[in-house]
Design goal:
By secondary structure, the protein is an alpha+beta fold. It is built from 18 helices and 14 strands. The strands form four sheets. Strands 1, 2, 3, 4, 5, 11 and 12 form a seven-stranded antiparallel sheet that branches. Helix 6 packs across helix 10, helix 6 packs parallel to helix 11 and helix 12 packs antiparallel against helix 13. The radius of gyration is 23 Å and the shape is globular. The C terminus is likely disordered.
Length: 533
């Protein structure tokens, strides 16, 4: 193990690596659909016992009342993070309508008319109405069923003890805040150019219900069960049927500099887009979207990773980044694994930590427009045909076979695994080697396992997913929730309702006035550049 540790120090040009630097901070945000015993999207409102979706820090909603989002606090323990996620699942299951369960897959269960996907509601406050209007805009711009797709976001940050020593090693002359921001952008650039690998390894959406593609242009094939799929697909959720947007195809977002990144998004938030102008902002007295611009909010930009910071009260998220720098990164490329009750496990977490640490410590060239769109094309190829590991991707304009590129990158990742294993006694190198086996044998990937099980047992996508959903519900409810956890969750839910009422009582503007001021926002990065000039 010492030999591997020394080789890792040499690989990354480090004179040392301290044990406290391995105390990675992580959090998980998991979306999952509430479904009826018949396997349909629930039409019921957000369960009252879960408190306010606006203010509960653990349990909220994403696009729909039925699309729950579970949020774990930052944790330096893998077991602690996953344990909290499990507790949230179990508390929620105990407080849903009888018979409702969580859909195990990322691609949604069947739905008929658009109104079968109820848009989430956040109360009468101006910020609550804005959140609902944003989702209403998404339903007009895309469609409601597409917004019911579920994913898993992984939040990653290095411990505070890491940054000052690492800054001295690197020789960065600026402030600690600037160094941390530059380092996270360095990580993001590396992650972005290699994000296709995660879609291959963990993609679990090779198929969809036939109702999901009705009325859409697609190249999917039909299985005997009626399910629509692609034989070599990995992660349709991240492709043409999911989060790829025609409106955003030409949008270039630069990760070389924080102000440039922020300005790219701010310009898109302020740039009118003709198809959205046709929808209209307010029609017959009812709002349809926040604005008619390319993006309503920065969250509408669908990326595989985002720089993030917890904003202070009254701060816009992008302004918070400009003022205070990047605090953590949010990995957004993960499907729910339908073979796991939580959709993720400790082995995958260890791999993600290893992957992200390697992206942080290894060389990270500046990105450019050509590479940005090259990455987008690589992702699309892996989404649709990635389990043909002989396909050629592009790296710096040159062809690169998927299996060769993946193998080389995973071999290099063993250096960051060695750093973690040296202080944690193992597990990280094992996680890399298990993923490397999927390159040699694509049948080991979740996407291949899904299709194999569906074909073997003559199951449709919906039958497969419903069986997994019932199995996980049984596992999660096998033991009662601990008294302390139950009381914490109940108190948090009750407090969230009080906080929502306080926000509603504090409003001094009408929503019309609030939205006018919201859309008149002058981004700080522009003001900073003007003052510098």
């Amino acid at each position: 193990m010492a030999d591997g540790f020394d080789a890792a120090l040499k690989r990354y040009g480090l004179p040392l690596f301290q044990p406290e630097w391995t105390a990675i901070c992580r959090g998980i945000e998991k979306e999952c659909l509430r479904v009826t015993p018949e396997g349909r999207i629930s039409r019921r409102q957000h369960p009252a016992a879960l408190g306010s979706a606006l203010k509960n820090p653990y349990i909220t909603t994403d696009f729909s009342e039925a699309l729950l989002e579970f949020i774990t606090p930052k944790d330096q323990s893998i077991d602690g993070c996953l344990g909290m996620l499990e507790d949230i699942h179990r508390f929620t299951l105990a407080n849903m309508e009888e018979g409702e369960i969580f859909w195990a897959s990322s691609m949604p269960c069947p739905a008929g008319a658009e109104d079968e996907v109820p848009i989430a509601s956040y109360g009468s406050s101006n910020i609550g109405q804005l959140k609902r209007l944003y989702r209403t805009g998404l339903s007009y711009r895309y469609d409601s069923l597409m917004q019911a797709i579920a994913g898993l976001h992984y939040n990653f940050s290095m411990p505070d003890e890491f940054w000052q020593p690492y800054q001295r090693i690197v020789g960065f002359d600026g402030s600690l805040q600037d160094f941390r921001t530059e380092s996270y952008l360095h990580l993001i650039r590396n992650f972005h150019r290699h994000s296709w690998l995660l879609l291959y390894l963990f993609g679990a959406s090779p198929a969809a219900a036939s109702s999901f593609v009705e009325g859409r242009e697609h190249d999917l094939q039909r299985m005997e069960s009626g399910t629509m799929y692609l034989p070599k697909a990995t992660c349709l959720r991240m492709g043409r049927l999911g989060y790829q947007s025609d409106a955003q195809k030409s949008l270039f977002v630069c990760y070389n500099d924080l102000k440039l990144y922020v300005e790219c998004l701010q310009d898109a938030i302020r740039k009118p887009y003709p198809p959205y102008e046709e929808i209209g902002q307010k029609v017959d007295g009812s709002y349809r979207q926040i604005n008619v611009n390319l993006l309503q909010l920065e969250n509408e930009f669908y990326s595989t990773i985002r720089p993030k910071r917890v904003a202070r009260v009254g701060e816009r998220p992008l302004d918070a980044l400009v003022l205070h720098g990047i605090e953590y990164v949010e990995l957004r490329a993960l499907d729910l694994n339908p073979f796991l009750p939580l959709g993720i496990d400790a082995e995958q977490v260890r791999f993600l930590d290893t992957f992200l640490l390697h992206c942080l410590l290894s060389e990270s060239p500046q990105c450019n427009r050509a590479e940005f769109f090259e990455v987008a094309n690589n992702i699309l190829r892996v989404v649709e045909e990635g389990r043909d590991t002989s396909i050629e991707l592009k790296s710096g304009g040159k062809p690169a076979r998927l299996d060769a590129w993946a193998g080389k990158f995973l071999d290099d990742m063993k250096h960051s695994a060695a750093l973690m294993d040296y202080f944690h006694g193992g597990g990280y190198l094992d996680s890399v080697e298990r993923q490397a086996a999927k390159i040699q044998d694509p049948s080991l990937t979740p996407s291949a396992r899904m299709l194999a099980e569906m074909e073997r047992d003559d199951l449709s996508f919906c039958e497969f997913s419903m069986a997994a959903s019932k199995r996980h519900a049984k596992t999660l409810t096998a033991e009662p929730l601990g008294k302390d956890v139950r009381e914490l969750m109940e108190e948090t839910a009750a407090e969230s309702l009080v906080r929502q009422r306080e926000v509603e009582a504090a409003d001094k503007q009408t929503f019309d006035e609030f939205l006018r001021d919201w859309n008149a926002w002058q981004p700080l990065s522009h003001a900073i550049h003007e003052s510098e000039a």
